[in-house]
Amino acid sequence: MVTVFHNAELEDLQIIRRRIDRLDERFVLLLKRRSLLVAQAQETKQHLGLPPRSREREQEILARGEELARQHGLNPDAVIRILENVLQNSLRMMDTRAAPPFNPLIPIDR
């Protein structure tokens, strides 16, 4: 069986893909902004004499992510995995002290 695509359908697909690309770009920019805020939080914690890591805060972030996922009809486990990856990357930033650029593609398990 041969599938025949109409030009209008292919154009629709291209439009949808461009929209996805724009969302991906916004997502990466949000991750960059988040990494800058994490660096600011670390500086503030250091000035206040607080420990660099707060497992309680990490659990709050994951619980909130799970709740938001449910509210918006997303898979909570998938959202939690994404947030765990973001948190792991933040921890790597703290460990290096040099605050390298955020890389959302670094896997959690290395």
Tally of contiguous helical segments: 3
Structural class: mainly alpha
Mean pLDDT: 88
CATH superfamily name? Chorismate mutase
Main sheet characteristics: none
Gap between N and C termini: 44 Å
The percentage helix is: over 70%
As a whole number of angstroms, the C-alpha radius of gyration is 19 Å
Proportion of beta-strand residues: under 5%
Count of folded domains = 1
Overall spatial form: elongated
Secondary-structure arrangement, i.e. CATH architecture: Up-down Bundle
Taken in chain order, the helices and strands follow as HHH
Description:
The chain is mainly alpha-helical and 110 residues long. The chain has one domain: Up-down Bundle (Chorismate Mutase Domain, subunit A). 73% of the residues lie in helices and 0% in strands. The chain contains three helices and no strands. Helix 1 crosses helix 3 and helix 2 packs antiparallel against helix 3. The longest helix is centred in the N-terminal third of the chain and has 42 residues. The chain is elongated and about 65 Å long. The mean pLDDT is 88.
Task: Jot down its keywords.
110 residues, 73% helix, mainly alpha, Chorismate Mutase Domain, subunit A, single chain, elongated
